Amino acid sequence: MTTAHNPSIEVFLKEGRNFPPSKEFQSKANINDPAIYEKATSASESYWADWAKELDWTQPWEKVLEWVPPHAKWFVGGKINACTNCVDRHVFPREGKPSRRNKAAIIWEGEPGDTRTLTYWDLYREVNRFANVLKKNGITKTWYQHKSIVSSRNYQAWHGVFAWCCERFKT
């Protein structure tokens, strides 16, 4: 048996194939101006800053990108509420923006073919329901913020909260 050459992992970082979308798919895209690629590559920080302005920030960022290879920090100093941007803003839109409360937010398909569709309004109600479950079990905003600060880079913090909740609700 011969031993195959074991290349370094960098070999796998090089991808030369191209998978262009079909013309039909392109015609249905929200943004179908090819010039967007040029702007994204020539002025990437301003490009992403413009897109970031579409989100609701609780604290604006001070710097768009802090790049010290191999680490990149985007929107340094900014704070964002993911739930507000992913759910609430579609149920209670900003002035001049359309409401999406009755549009599908999540379409789930199970293995045997069962499906469930949650609109933004359904998702909003479910998120609030779960927040009330946490609150009734002593997980307050203050407790959660403290736990997040202490364990912000620790996946186990999230895992621990949900494992605790699951265990608590079994009894």
Secondary structure: elements and pairs:
Blueprint: H1 23-27, H2 35-42, H3 44-52, E1 57-59, E2 63-68, E3 71-76, E4 79-80, H4 82-91, E5 104-109, E6 115-119, H5 120-136, H6 141-150, H7 155-170
Antiparallel strand pairs: 1-4, 2-3, 5-6
Derived structural class: alpha+beta
- Largest sheet descriptor: 2 strands, antiparallel
Distance between the termini: 57 Å
H/E element sequence: HHHEEEEHEEHHH
Number of E-state strands:
6
The number of helical elements comes to 7
Shape: extended
Helix content: 40-55%
Give the percentage of residues in beta strands.
15-25%
Q: Tell me the Rg in angstroms.
A: 22 Å
Low-confidence stretches: 146-159
Strand order within the widest sheet?
Answer: 1-4
- Whole-number average pLDDT? 80
Give the key terms.
6 strands, two-stranded antiparallel ribbon, alpha+beta, extended, 171 residues, two-stranded antiparallel sheet, 44% helix
